Amino acid sequence: MPETQDPHVTQPSSVKFVYDFTEGNKELKDLLGGKGANLAEMTNLGLPVPPGFTITTEACKVYLDSGTEPAALRAEVSEHLDALEQQMGKKLGQADDPLLVSVRSGAKFSMPGMMDTVLNIGLSDASVSGLAAQAGDERFAWDSYRRLIQMFGKTVLGVDGELFEEALEEAKQAKGVRVDIDLDAADLKSLVAHFKDIVSKETGRDFPQEPREQMDLAVRAVFDSWNTDRAKLYRRQERIPGDLGTAVNVCSMVFGNLGPDSGTGVAFTRDPASGHQGVYGDYLQNAQGEDVVAGIRNTVPLADLENIDKASYDELMQIMETLETHYKDLCDIEFTIERGKLWMLQTRVGKRTAGAAFRIATQLVDQGLIDEAEALQRVNGAQLAQLMFPRFDLGAKSETIGRGIAASPGAAVGKAVFDSYTAVKWSRSGEKVILIRRETNPDDLNGMIAAEGILTSRGGKTSHAAVVARGMGKTCVCGAEELEVDTKSRRLTTSDGTVIEEGDVVSIDGSTGKVYAGEVPVVPSPVVEYFEGRMHAGAEDADELVKAVHRIMAYADRVRRLRVRANADNAEDAARARRFGAQGIGLCRTEHMFLGERREMVERLILADTESDREAALSQLLPLQKADFIELFESMDGLPVTVRLLDPPLHEFLPDITELSVRVALAEARKDANENDLRLLQAVHKLHEQNPMLGLRGVRLGLVIPGLFAMQVRAIAEAAAERKNAKGDPRAEIMIPLVGTVQELEIVREEAEQVIAEVEKAHGVSLKLTLGTMIELPRAALTAGQIAESADFFSFGTNDLTQTVWGFSRDDVEASFFTAYLEKGIFGVSPFETIDKDGVGSLVRNAAAAGRATRPDLKLGVCGEHGGDPESVHFFHEAGLDYVSCSPFRIPVARLEAGRAAAESKGSDSR
């Protein structure tokens, strides 16, 4: 992609800012944006695309950086506009036979509804009559003019869109009609005058009559829309970089609002909700494109077009097959029919639900369009995680209050809210909410993100609500026409008169389109049942999905290099992890074994004054620890189990200093103070720490409390010995936590090896126990070469490493200022969710390389929460780690992403 130009330097003549549709192709998305690149591709395929040109993302970046367009842009636009006028045989906005154009955004990545579009550019008081004469339809001309003023006023001039909507509603009420197509030419002419008055009153200027001024201002508005709040919010949600900019597409207008033989629609080559092949989409007669997407009029199914206009329908079906075969994927298509002539306005690889993604990927393999490696790249871990969420128990008693279009699957339950502000407010207070609207628009994005699901009474599978919900993985039901939504009164009324007030609980099923009053119980996902070894015996559709997941997971497991282990502290979690495909335990946190009744034993150990007290506490703990490890080794027989020695912040095993102080003070006031409490308070004061996470914990605790780590090592070794003598195959790995220097590791290792030797001798076995360390401190990462001299393995503890590298206390910062950091764009995502590749990641890479330089056979893994994060898994693959470890439920996601990382790496190497 060309480098961004310094706006203060004259751009060389070789820089090209405008491309005709005939000049580009689908590979130029960085430069032409997705829409422009695909319009060019369709033009190259010989499909009926209205002529036009694209202003590049580079021009947008110059504008955003400097506040003004590149010096060469106006001349280039004029050159391409002249060529377009010659091709069309008419001039932009000429009075008798005007050329009209649309000005549309088009970023590299699809951002549906987030940026601006203006249609009918070139209409004016002087040319509207010419358009009417040209079309032989006065109503059409005035309808197009009112649309231009409405879109231009809101998008370009910043007029409140509600003012136009209110004026339109008033016109319909005065006429006694419900839909705008029932307004005649005289009504629309009056509405145009009203709209122009609104523009003059709200902006202090008249609606611009010069066509080129309209176009130039619209182009600038599209550039500006890249940085609107809603666009930035959407990019953060979808992790789209903020420095890409948008292209602008200037396209000659074709009109779907020329009468019953005209219309506009959106089509999918397969169902984006289920993945099934068939005829899917929406069509609206006598309408322009925004009517479909906005959901302000309910569409008819695309299949109905065959009866309305069979010739256009047949041509569209042929084009859809051409595009899907060419793109080798589900295609999302926008089209217009102008008096029986079909025009293609856009295509893109369509957004789809998680289930559809898996089904479509395997279908395309079966059709020979893609191979298994490409199918693996067509799905991702986030989609797999969605498929593992519970779904409604259809056998439970429930009150169905309506049904709409199943636009985005899932089972969502929450309190009814009727505006985005309330959705965000209640959600931040911990409430689960369902956002209910007549139809959504881009301004509702905050509420859609906050809600568990979205319900609309208008629109179809191609409406704004449906498209955005599918992209975010949100449950959505659209077009529930029998439900009357009153946003002002904040209520929903069903066809039988049942009223749902704001705050009432509703349930929506994005797989069936059903809407329920109250909370509907949920059951496990069939995909989870598959991973646990219980194939779903219910719906055929679910079985089809399970088969698709199975095929892709099987391929991912064949090609991945990274092994996947589990973070598990007990036999139950270990057994579930193994069913989910875990190849061992990467982190057993032994401190979790000392909660409940055992906590007092650890407390006595830490507070022990004498050697005999300490040994007594250790002797109590040893058999309990040994029993824990025997269960773990049985559950994971034949697979590695990494046991981290005790690593609690000290305060977790001591009495609360405030409560103890109050108890002692009250006792002293009553003159019946307990000697043990006084001694305990003195000891707790002595051990009290201002920052326990950086205090006496990990290896430091093992070095300060004699016998603690030796007891744990003995318990591990004896459990392994007994398991081995019982013909088992225990593979224990002992991990020393919070090491900052090799000397700490050397001392603990020497003690551990002595204990292991004693156990081997006593049980008559040879134990192959390995000893390693967790790299979770910057110093450990920086001196990894030295530490590797005494370590058989490294496991990166990226939770603590992130805290210590950033200087963040995770328990505090996520609740205090992370929201502000995300909103300001300082973070694209929390560094605790996805690894910070530049900072923490750099330490991981360097430590891995230094460790292997010292010890080439050093085993490398990661056991922080990042081990189950899709993006982070790819990083760990690239960094050369041997395995990732994560919570049991995230194991399938990690397996899938490890396969995707391997396939992606292989594809890059072959290129």
TrEMBL record:
SUPFAM superfamilies assigned to the protein according to its UniProt record, in alphabetical order: Glutathione synthetase ATP-binding domain-like, Phosphoenolpyruvate/pyruvate domain, Phosphohistidine domain
Domain of life: Bacteria
Catalytic residues of the enzyme: H464, C863
Any Pfam family the entry gives: PEP-utilizers
Record flagged with keyword Iron: no
EC number(s) reported in the record: 2.7.9.1
Stretches assigned to the PEP-utilising enzyme C-terminal domain: 547-898
The keyword Iron appears for this protein: no
PEP-utilising enzyme mobile domain mapped to chain residues: 431-513
EC class: transferase
Listed GO MF terms: ATP binding; kinase activity; metal ion binding; pyruvate, phosphate dikinase activity
Names of the cofactor(s): Mg(2+)
Annotated substrate binding sites: R589, R644, E776, G797, T798, N799, D800
InterPro entries: ATP_grasp_subdomain_1, PEP-util_enz_mobile_dom, PEP_util_AS, PEP_util_C, Phosphohistidine_dom_sf, PPDK_AMP/ATP-bd, Pyruvate_phosphate_dikinase, Pyrv/PenolPyrv_kinase-like_dom
Catalytic activity annotation: pyruvate + phosphate + ATP = phosphoenolpyruvate + AMP + diphosphate + H(+)
Domain Pyruvate phosphate dikinase AMP/ATP-binding: 30-66, 73-298, 306-355
Residues annotated to bind Mg(2+): E776, D800
UniProt keyword annotations, A-Z: ATP-binding, Kinase, Magnesium, Metal-binding, Nucleotide-binding, Pyruvate, Transferase
Entry's family note: Belongs to the PEP-utilizing enzyme family.
Name of the featured protein: Pyruvate, phosphate dikinase
Species of the source: Streptomyces angustmyceticus
Organism lineage string: Bacteria, Bacillati, Actinomycetota, Actinomycetes, Kitasatosporales
